[in-house]
């Protein structure tokens, strides 16, 4: 039995859960989300807790058991607290601005990069170098942050580029003069 999959998920205060067949709907103060469970995985609401079970012991069903339990737990956390990912931009002339629902990044290229922010993600820019992404969907926040970071990852010589807040970039020494 999956160690993660068999753990019951406590439903937080102010969150309503509706399970009908293979569909799980979650509604909270921050928003609402829905998830379709694959064949062989079932969810049941019992006394303020959600229990995820599997129908058989096939390899794929065993693999999906813990995964979908984690997805449901992330949905509950997202609609009650939300998810946030912070990015830092370092480098001379490197900056970010928000124009409507488009994030405009100047990252040392000859042109500025325009990133259309997904509708489920909220973006805030502080001091032109700190970008905060917020959403109820953990996957969407992580994906948007990874795409923004991919435009110019922090390089090891001067440390210029986009990095996650608190990310350590291993620095290399440049050429040494004899």
Descriptive account of the structure:
It is a single chain. The protein has 2 helices and 13 strands. The protein has 178 residues and is of the alpha+beta class. It has 2 domains: 9-80, Outer Surface Protein A, domain 3 (Alpha-Beta Complex), CATH 3.90.930; 83-164, Ribosomal protein L6 (Outer Surface Protein A, domain 3, Alpha-Beta Complex), CATH 3.90.930.12. The chain has a 4-stranded antiparallel sheet with strand order 11-12-7-13, covered by helices on one side. It has a 3-stranded antiparallel sheet with strand order 1-6-5. The radius of gyration is 21 Å and the shape is elongated. The mean pLDDT is 93.
Secondary structure tally, helices: 2
Shape: elongated
Briefly, what CATH class of the largest domain? Alpha Beta
Through-space gap between termini: 62 Å
Low-confidence regions = none
Strand content: 35-45%
* SSE-based structural type: alpha+beta
Helices and strands, with pairings:
Blueprint: E1 9-10, E2 16-20, E3 23-27, E4 32-36, E5 41-46, E6 49-54, H1 59-80, E7 83-90, E8 95-99, E9 102-106, E10 113-116, E11 122-126, E12 130-135, H2 138-150, E13 161-164
Antiparallel strand pairs: 1-6, 2-3, 3-4, 5-6, 7-12, 7-13, 8-9, 9-10, 11-12
In short:
The chain is α+β, with helices and mostly antiparallel strands. The chain has helices at 59-80, 138-150, and strands at 9-10, 16-20, 23-27, 32-36, 41-46, 49-54, 83-90, 95-99, 102-106, 113-116, 122-126, 130-135, 161-164. The longest helix is centred in the middle third of the chain and has 22 residues, at 59-80.
State the main characteristics.
alpha+beta; Outer Surface Protein A, domain 3; 2 domains; 4-stranded antiparallel β-sheet; 2 helices; 37% strand
